[in-house]
């Protein structure tokens, strides 16, 4: 029997929620003594964690599977695309196994069959925080899986199932382990963060002898005692989100809300099966800013949704002008296999989608630039992400990694900073989404 330590490679595609799945798989692998191979040719098998949300993501996943087969030959497929095993095997019949999202046992079973583990107790040790794919100073913390919404453009519930929240005590223990390992920022992710705990009827769970309700407010209040940045992503605008804003004003949670509004036109929102009273949302946004003036609001929108008229699009631009959101992403609608929106009438021409996308992004760029210029001359806390011979790069509390802006730092002391430091930076220049500054 060979005593060579088995090595497994992994390719992780898709959103931060899929990244957390990959991290859990890596943790299981290391717990069983596997080494993680950074190359195809050094691996005994390769896991491809796929994304299957839209056609372009599906194609990227199919391409990644094909590349892994060509370079290695032993490929295990998991993730969102895995719900379509027949489609995967039709294109790539040589894959060893296919499983859907968060089916860790199926993945490990396939790994065992491809390359049995060596049971060595000296290697069956992993850090309490698990194996991470993010830099050491920040980590994604998944608080629930699945979704109970029925948005017509989305098939997440059919891929990842109904909402399944993790007990608050379990989440808090993982957060504590991450903080103790040196993580300075926790990014809370799920399909529907605002709905956290509703499936469990907000039941209490234990955290060091204290009962904590499995509810967004209670979880965030408890996380606020850990002295790390806590950032909220994918928050559906439920009324109880208002209750969290005072926690931001108190400094327990980062003053940052990622709320995918998707559109503003009541007609389009109804077609999407999204909340439809955006005028009421404007009032709420203004109230949030009164309570927490530092709050940064990020959102995403879809243009070219079936039935969207020029009037609907102009309504959206008008709403954006009033909302003055800090960060905005925009997607051109495309059909997703199995989504109800595919069957709606009056699909928008691709050329019109492109024009509307460009108009919205330019409109928002001007708003963002005005907001950023107002930051010049002010001082902000910045978390350092990179340091080199020219200076450092970091993010303010209003910037999530890889999707928002950055702060470029030069001048005295900038090259002596370390990744994970939180420092005060005085801003001397701004442009669209990024800032430039020096140590205050």
UniProtKB/TrEMBL annotation:
Its EC number is 2.8.4.4. The keyword Methyltransferase applies. CDD domains: Radical_SAM (cd01335). GO terms for biological process: methylation; tRNA modification. The keyword 4Fe-4S applies. Residues 6-116 form the MTTase N-terminal domain. Residues 373-440 form the TRAM domain. Catalyzes the methylthiolation of an aspartic acid residue of ribosomal protein uS12. Belongs to the methylthiotransferase family. RimO subfamily. NCBIfam families: 30S ribosomal protein S12 methylthiotransferase RimO, MiaB/RimO family radical SAM methylthiotransferase. This is Ribosomal protein uS12 methylthiotransferase RimO. It comes from Candidatus Terasakiella magnetica. The lineage of its organism: Bacteria, Pseudomonadati, Pseudomonadota, Alphaproteobacteria, Rhodospirillales. The gene is yliG.
């Amino acid at each position: 029997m060979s005593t060579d330590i088995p090595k497994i490679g992994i390719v992780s595609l898709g959103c931060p929620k899929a990244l957390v799945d990959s991290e859990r798989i890596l943790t299981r692998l290391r717990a069983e003594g596997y080494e993680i191979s950074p190359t195809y040719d050094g691996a005994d098998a390769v896991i491809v964690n796929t994304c299957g949300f839209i056609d372009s993501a599906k194609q990227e996943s199919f391409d990644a599977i094909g590349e892994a087969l060509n370079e290695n030959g032993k490929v295990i497929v998991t993730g969102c695309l895995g719900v379509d095993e027949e489609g995967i095997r039709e294109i790539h019949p040589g894959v060893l196994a296919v499983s859907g999202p968060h089916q860790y046992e199926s993945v490990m079973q396939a790994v065992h069959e491809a390359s049995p583990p060596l049971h060595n107790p000296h290697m069956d040790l992993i850090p309490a925080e698990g194996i991470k794919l993010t830099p050491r100073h920040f980590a994604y913390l998944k608080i629930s899986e699945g979704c109970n919404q029925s948005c017509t453009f989305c098939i997440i519930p059919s891929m990842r199932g109904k909402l399944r929240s993790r007990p608050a005590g379990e989440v808090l223990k993982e957060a504590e382990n991450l903080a103790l390992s040196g993580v300075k920022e926790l990014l809370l992710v799920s399909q529907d963060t605002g709905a956290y705990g509703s499936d469990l009827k907000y039941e209490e769970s234990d955290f060091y002898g204290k009962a904590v309700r499995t509810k967004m407010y209670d979880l965030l209040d408890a996380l606020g005692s850990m002295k790390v940045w806590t950032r909220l992503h994918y928050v559906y605008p439920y009324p109880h989100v208002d209750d969290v804003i005072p926690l931001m004003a108190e400094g327990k949670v980062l003053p940052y809300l990622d709320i995918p509004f998707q559109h503003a036109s009541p007609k389009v929102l109804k077609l999407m099966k999204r909340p439809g009273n955006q005028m009421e949302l404007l009032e709420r946004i203004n109230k949030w800013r009164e309570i927490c003036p530092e709050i940064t609001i990020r959102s995403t929108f879809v243009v070219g949704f079936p039935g969207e008229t020029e009037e609907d699009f102009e309504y959206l631009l008008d709403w954006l002008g009033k909302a003055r959101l800090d960060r905005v992403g925009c997607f051109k609608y495309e059909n997703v296999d199995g989504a109800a929106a595919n069957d709606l009438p009056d699909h928008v021409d691709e050329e019109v989608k492109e024009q509307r996308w460009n108009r919205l992004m330019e409109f928002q760029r001007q708003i963002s630039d005005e907001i950023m210029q107002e930051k010049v001359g002010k001082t902000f806390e910045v978390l350092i992400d990179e340091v080199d011979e020219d200076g450092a790069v970091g993010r303010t509390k209003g910037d999530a990694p890889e999707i928002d802006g950055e702060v470029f730092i030069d001048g005295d002391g900038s090259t002596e900073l370390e990744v994970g430091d939180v420092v005060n930076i005085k801003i001397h220049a701004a442009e669209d989404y990024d800032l430039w500054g020096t140590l205050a």
